[in-house]
Amino acid sequence: MARSRRTPASRFQRYILTGLFTAIPLWVTWVIFAFFLHQLTRIGRPWVKAIVQPLQGQWPEVARWLESGWLEPLLAILVTLALLYLLGWAATRVAGRRLLALLEAILERIPLIEKVYGATRQLIRVMQERPEGVERVVLIDFPSQGMKTVGLVMRVLPHPATGMPMAAVYVPTTPNPTSGYLELVPLDRIEETNWSLDEAMTFIISGGAVAPGAPAKPDRGQGAPPA
Predict the structure, then answer these.
(1) Is the backbone of residue 159 left (phi > 0), alpha (psi -120 to 50) or beta?
(2) Integer Cα distance of 222 and 87 in angstroms
(3) Hey, is 158 helix, strand or coil?
(4) How much is the pTM?
(5) Helix 8-52 with 71-91: angle, nearest 10 deg
(6) Residue 192 and residue 186: Cα distance in Å, rounded?
(7) Torsion sign (Cα): 203, 208, 209, 212
């Protein structure tokens, strides 16, 4: 059977769509990467200027070279990474933990700031710990019965009336997982998975294009399948 000949217009449309689908993941990757680079540069630039300032009197050529268009952002990123490393190192030492505790005590006395800082700190701690009695990544019925979505169990708490355990499940949205919904789901209506947090976030950000290979565990309350 002879192949149908493509017209110039159809070839043009095909190549445009192919180029678009090829460029989208590259563009998304670059946007995220550029955002983090911008934040690292913005944090480190004042430190670089503070280092360069004393050099302008005795070594003006060196100071101008350090403030050149490509070198200053690079130095700012390196300085920020060094500061993060030192902060992490200090947080593992007794003196550093005491200093951080003092800083937290000061922040907790400032209105509004203490609520934002406290909520953010609690969120980081929750994400670092496995919720008690249930896997982190689960499947729940959402937005209606019979439809499944990926959720992250933040904590397990008792029902205020019956005392039955319920899970606070955060349902991220695609492709931006920083926004989503909070659902309170009984534990017996949760399907646990073998997915790691990284696998779940990749699945969500990619819109389901990249899916982990591990199957879901049996539902809670259901016995093992018959032999």
Answers:
(1) beta
(2) 47
(3) strand
(4) 0.53
(5) 70
(6) 13
(7) positive
- Look up tokens 């049996």; give the residue: 218
In whole angstroms, what is the distance from residue 34 CA to residue 26 CA? 12
Give the whole-angstrom CA distance, residue 60 versus residue 134. 61
C-alpha closest to that of 116 among 124, 178, 92, 169: 124
For the chain, give percent helix, strand, coil, nearest 5.
50, 15, 35
Name the one residue in this structure whose structure tokens are 């994400």: 127
Strands 137-141 and 191-192: antiparallel
Question: Which pair of tokens denotes residue 69?
Answer: 């268009």
73-128 tens-digit pLDDT: 888 888 889 988 888 888 888 887 888 888 888 887 888 887 788 777 777 776 66
Residues 213 and 160 sit within 8 Å (Cβ to Cβ): no
- Complete DSSP assignment for 37-97: HHHHHHHHHHHHHHHHTTHHHH-HHHHHHHTSTTHHHHHHHHHHHHHHHHHHHHHTSHHHH
